[in-house]
Design brief:
Length: about 650
């Protein structure tokens, strides 16, 4: 009988975990058929070039973040055959990554469970429900179903692997296997940090999160002198350097906010309130709380206004200070709070980013979401039974999952999802722009036109509404665009502004349609002039490189070779990328300009020498281009 109980004790957690993973698949299944959102197309449209240019060229084309996020782009490149016809395939991979991350969370919980003051039976309960609540939480739908947020999933994957490797190494040190332990911890933290950063930059926070674990849940474990030295070198020193870098950014980054509708100071204050909203939504999930668009969140004017700013800042500071001071008496509470805020250090502080995105909680939420199962599991001895605890956790898990099911069902209906987003966030420009796109996709052009006319009145400096109004008339309906609409668009091209990613996505779409010959010549000519005016708009510094590239594509369609060359040259000089530089070289070769092509190829080779992966990507193409260049440099010389 005892042996049977022991076998059952081993079997039940495994069976529960398998059932949980299957349930998560069912929760996400309706949303897997949804399409692209926000900046998906902007980040992934070059997948169409993988067949001709190769995987490595796409991997080196990343523009998301200072490191280019090559591991994330590699994962997308491996699915290039599914682009753009089978977007569901990308979301399936995202879901599988989410399930894999859930397994890693489970194993981290198992490794830490002995230090939580729980009975062996309650440890299994804690691990299963901590994993389950995190896996089914509706806040993560915008990570899994928003294709490019695979970057957040992959970064979290390597952070979790790094934490697990550290825990394994720590156990080895305690067991007396010192060499294996210290080497294992060093490799886990070092390689985990590097790999996570190559997926998304907040992977740099792995040493900080391991330090949180060491200071809280593992504080009573042995710390010999050698371990303390290792901790200083591999955890404390990197954490101090990260803190110093953040302070340096605070000192020197104010000027980068000039194109934002808020300052660095205002953003920092607003993030305090945003973090409190995140915490509330994590513990009390409701269907209306979650979605892609939160750009209508009120921005703090200063510490004393509006009235919610000061209390929010005080609350955040109080939570962090209390967690640190109480880490010995209440280590689990301290772990949850410090992990959450530690993982938010980059994206939810003063750095020049958007204010509010749910996917930023993918990694931080692990800390807080362990608190509910732990608090309830602690009550089992008082209740003299585990049944009420399991029942309460099952109810919480089911209610959380039900919210996710409702939202997942909404994701498979793009128009309904867009309408719901506008209902909840009527002042969100992103939500309004998305609804207009869905109206166009559904063929309801009158509704789309009415919506964009309303947006043009509400946001008189926004370019996007005027751009889409012109497209509805001149490109979709093939009707003359009213003179006043062109005049308004030209004025906005000179001095208007943009928010979000929809602007460049819209221009990319229109340029593609024009290049395919599906818009009239008059519309194409007017739009080309407008895009060229946008390249000198002082409010569009971030978009200038892309605007020159789009203007070049339009001029090429119209046969204006000098203007085409000028725009492609300015595109690769304004925001240098390997892809843009190579486009310029290819264009010079096609147009028979060997002297200029040779000069650019020499500069391109010099750049590639500093990037070994990119060199492999372009090596064969450079060889072919070199042969073509040698042929062109024959007796005839350069063509006119």
């Amino acid at each position: 009988m005892p042996e049977q109980d022991q076998n059952r004790h081993r079997f039940l957690p495994a069976a529960a975990l398998i059932a949980l993973l299957l349930a998560v698949i069912l929760v996400y299944l309706p949303g897997l058929g949804s399409g692209l959102y926000v900046d998906d197309y902007y980040n992934l449209h070059l997948l169409s070039t993988v067949k001709d240019e190769g995987i490595l060229a796409f991997v080196g084309s990343g523009v998301s973040g200072p490191l280019g996020r090559p591991l994330s782009y590699l994962s997308f490149a491996l699915q290039a055959g599914s682009w753009p016809a089978n977007i569901a395939a990308f979301k399936w991979v995202n879901l599988l990554l989410h399930l894999g991350n859930g397994l890693l969370v489970f194993f981290i919980c198992r490794a830490c469970a002995p230090f939580l003051g729980l009975s062996p039976q309650m440890r299994d309960v804690f691990c299963i429900f901590s994993t389950g609540i995190w896996l089914v939480h509706p806040m993560h739908l915008t990570t899994v179903l928003y294709v490019v947020q695979r970057m957040a999933e992959l970064s979290a994957l390597f952070v979790f692997l790094g934490v697990l490797g550290y825990l394994a190494g720590r156990r080895a040190v305690e067991a007396g296997r010192l060499r294996a332990g210290y080497v294992g911890m060093t490799v886990a933290v070092g390689a985990g940090t590097l790999a996570a950063m190559l997926c998304k930059e907040n992977g740099i926070l792995l040493p900080v999160l391991v330090l949180v674990l060491d200071w809280t849940l593992l504080q009573d474990r042995p710390r010999p002198a050698a371990y303390r030295i290792w901790r200083f070198i591999c955890l404390i020193l990197p954490a101090v350097l990260i803190g110093g870098w953040l302070l340096w950014q605070a000192w020197g980054s104010q000027d980068t906010f000039q194109w934002r509708p808020y300052s660095m100071y205002q953003k920092s204050l607003t993030e305090a309130a945003v973090l409190l909203v995140y915490i509330w939504d994590l513990f009390v999930p409701r269907p209306s709380a979650f979605g892609l668009f939160h750009d209508d969140f009120p921005v703090a004017a200063g510490l004393l206004g509006p009235a919610w700013v000061l209390p929010a800042v005080v609350a955040i500071v109080a939570m962090i200070v209390c967690a640190f001071l109480l880490r010995r008496r209440h280590p689990v509470f301290a772990f949850g709070v410090l992990w959450f805020f530690g993982a938010h250090l980059l994206e939810s502080t003063h750095l020049n980013l958007e204010i509010y995105f749910e996917h930023r909680n993918y990694l931080p939420s692990v800390g807080l979401l362990t608190l509910v199962p732990w608090l309830l599991a602690r009550q089992a001895p008082r209740l003299q039974s585990s049944s009420p605890v399991v029942a309460a956790l099952c109810l919480y898990l089911v209610l959380t999952g039900w919210v996710s099911v409702q939202n997942s069902l909404l994701w498979r209906q793009p128009l309904a999802l867009a309408e719901e987003a506008v209902r909840i966030h009527p002042e969100s420009r992103g939500a309004l722009a998305q609804l207009g796109s869905r109206y166009i996709g559904a063929g309801n052009l009158d509704a789309a036109r009415g919506l964009y006319q309303d947006m043009a009145v509400r946001y008189p400096t926004a370019i996007l509404p005027a751009l889409r109004l012109a497209a509805i008339s001149g490109c979709i309906r093939n009707e003359p665009v009213a003179a006043e609409e062109w005049e308004r668009l030209e004025s906005l091209a000179d001095s208007g502004g943009v928010t979000g990613f929809e602007f460049l996505a819209e221009l990319n779409t229109q340029v593609s349609v024009i290049s395919a010959g599906e818009c009239g010549h008059q519309y194409a000519e007017r739009l080309t002039g407008i895009v060229e005016r946008m390249t000198t708009n002082p409010n569009l510094p971030r978009e200038r490189g892309a605007l020159h590239e789009l203007a070049g594509a339009l001029r090429l369609t119209m046969g204006d070779i000098p203007a085409t060359l000028r725009h492609y040259r300015l595109a690769k000089e304004t925001v240098p990328t390997l892809h843009r530089h190579w486009l310029y070289i290819e264009l010079l070769l096609k147009l028979g300009r060997p002297r200029a092509a040779g000069d650019e190829m020499a500069a391109f080779r010099a750049t590639l020498k500093q990037q070994p992966v990119a060199w492999l990507a372009y090596r064969d193409k450079l060889a072919v281009a070199r042969k073509l260049l040698d042929t062109m440099n024959g007796p005839k010389g350069e063509q006119p």
